[in-house]
TrEMBL record:
Segments forming domain Major facilitator superfamily (MFS) profile: 23-437
Membrane topology category: Multi-pass membrane protein
Primary subcellular site in the record, as a coarse category: membrane
Pfam families per the UniProt record, alphabetical: ATG22 (PF11700)
Subcellular location(s) of the protein: Endomembrane system
Keyword field: Membrane, Transmembrane, Transmembrane helix, Transport
A single cellular component GO annotation: endomembrane system
Membrane-crossing residue ranges in chain numbering: 20-42, 62-85, 97-113, 119-138, 159-178, 198-218, 256-277, 289-310, 322-342, 348-365, 386-405, 411-431
Protein name: MFS transporter
InterPro entries: Atg22-like, ATG22/LtaA_families, MFS_dom, MFS_trans_sf
């Protein structure tokens, strides 16, 4: 196995290439095909609620609560596993495990049905756990493979590669869904639904196949002669506590994390529910127009996000990371206000363009900003575990609030409007982060 030097072009490309491999999950499963398929199941069955665990619940709160539960599990196990990974120096093995768990669960979504809703939601649940669990270890590699001056650009490169790769697979899946007969699914009613189910399988294959390049070149982790014992099972939580204690000595990192926790809560919630919002709240004029319109909207977001990630990286070099993040959060406030009023497709397309512009930028810049604020340490996984736990708990809170407001008011618009509070708070918290010339 090659032992590439930190900062080398091949190592940076290998790290960024995992975004190419796994981003098909976030696009096809989290954002595009699966939400459409999920809502179509309820429409075909001509129902709006389903009985689960002894109670009736609407389709969108159900998926919101399931998503929140998965993030809660990830938030709990991340410090446990990352602590072990840092202790014995095998973070790549953990990254592989979650990669394969997520990919195989995506394939399991082929069997998703309302008749078997419990096992179906379990596949969705573990697909999400696999995706976000692998990101804990993937993100923690950034300071291991890149020097501080490289991190903004390589982080943006990873997101850009992810957007491009996932769009390629989505276009292929779109062809399957829109023209099922040319892919062997026939012309009878339900052919498009069958094509959607097979698109979930293609996600799993793509994810496993292309991740091998990253796994081949990424280092195993920091070498250690320590043996795994029962005592270290809680080591991750001790390290998490240690990271929390160290924040008092790093005011930049502490205040940035507080801001990140709040605005990321809103960003991730918007990204997770955007397609469900478009499916329910926009007047598309017909099912075929709705399918095409939602896919076009998602493609707009992904393609513009590539530009957004690059522009944000360039802007951060000129103006500093924190000022750029403040501006992006202000733009998010405007997006949420506009989203409350939109009703027709053209309005949704324009809003999608602005979402894409700031979506890639805020994700890549947040990751690299956090990496820059880290103290000198070999235990980068523990610090990125803390980062990911903050993000996941924020998502849990955001999705629960979103689902609750949706459930009690019967409209997703009210939930979107509520997210404005988080972005405004994020701006005020970012203004409190001490800055120097590069930040």
């Amino acid at each position: 196995m090659p032992n590439l030097l930190k900062g080398s072009k091949k190592l940076l490309n290998a790290w960024a290439f995992y975004d190419w491999a796994n981003s098909v999950y976030s696009l096809v499963i989290a954002s595009a095909i699966f939400p459409i398929y999920y809502q179509a199941l309820f429409k075909v069955a001509d129902i709006t609620t389903i009985s689960i665990f002894g109670g009736a619940i609407r389709s969108t709160p159900l998926i919101s609560y399931t998503t929140a539960a998965a993030f809660l599990l990830v938030a709990f196990i991340s410090p446990l596993l990352s602590g072990i990974a840092d202790y014995v120096g095998n973070k790549k093995n953990f990254m592989k495990f979650f990669c394969y768990l997520g990919a195989l669960s995506c394939m399991g979504l082929y069997f998703f049905s309302l008749e078997n809703i419990h096992i179906s939601l379990l596949f969705y649940f573990f697909g999400l756990v696999g995706f976000w669990g692998s990101l804990v270890f993937y993100n923690s590699y950034l300071p291991d493979v890149a020097f501080p001056e490289q991190q903004d650009r390589v982080s943006a490169r990873g997101y850009s590669m992810g957007y491009i790769g996932s769009v390629i697979l989505l276009l292929f899946n779109l062809g399957m869904v829109m023209f099922p007969k040319y892919f062997g699914f026939g012309e009878e009613e339900g052919a498009s639904m069958q094509a959607m189910r097979w698109s979930f399988v293609t996600v799993g294959i793509w994810w496993i196949l292309f991740s091998q390049y990253s796994f081949y070149f990424l280092p195993k982790g920091n070498k250690s002669e320590k043996k795994v014992t029962a005592k270290i099972l809680l080591n991750g939580f001790r390290e998490l506590k240690s990271v929390y204690s160290s924040l008092s000595e790093n005011i930049q990192l502490k205040r940035f994390l507080a801001a990140f926790f709040v605005y990321s809560m809103a960003v991730q919630t918007v990204m997770l529910v955007a397609t469900y919002f478009g499916e329910q709240e926009i007047d598309w004029g017909g099912d075929d127009a709705k399918l095409l319109g939602l896919i076009v909207s998602i493609l707009i977001i992904q393609l513009v996000a590539v530009i957004g990630a690059v522009l944000t990286s360039r802007a951060s070099e000129k103006f500093g990371n924190i000022p750029v993040l403040i501006v992006i959060n202000i733009i998010w406030v405007g997006i949420c206000i506009v989203a409350f009023f939109i009703e027709i497709p053209i309005q949704f397309y324009i809003t999608a363009g602005f979402v894409g512009l700031v979506m890639g930028g805020i994700q890549s810049l947040s990751r690299s900003t956090y990496s820059k604020f880290l103290p000198e340490t070999k235990d980068t996984t523990s610090y990125f575990s803390f980062y990911d736990v903050a993000e996941k708990i924020g998502i849990v809170i955001g999705m629960l609030i979103y689902g609750f407001i949706d459930q009690i008011t019967g409209s997703m618009r009210n939930s979107i409007l509520f997210l404005i509070i988080f972005f405004i708070t994020g701006v005020f918290l970012l203004l409190r982060v001490p800055r120097n010339k590069n930040h």
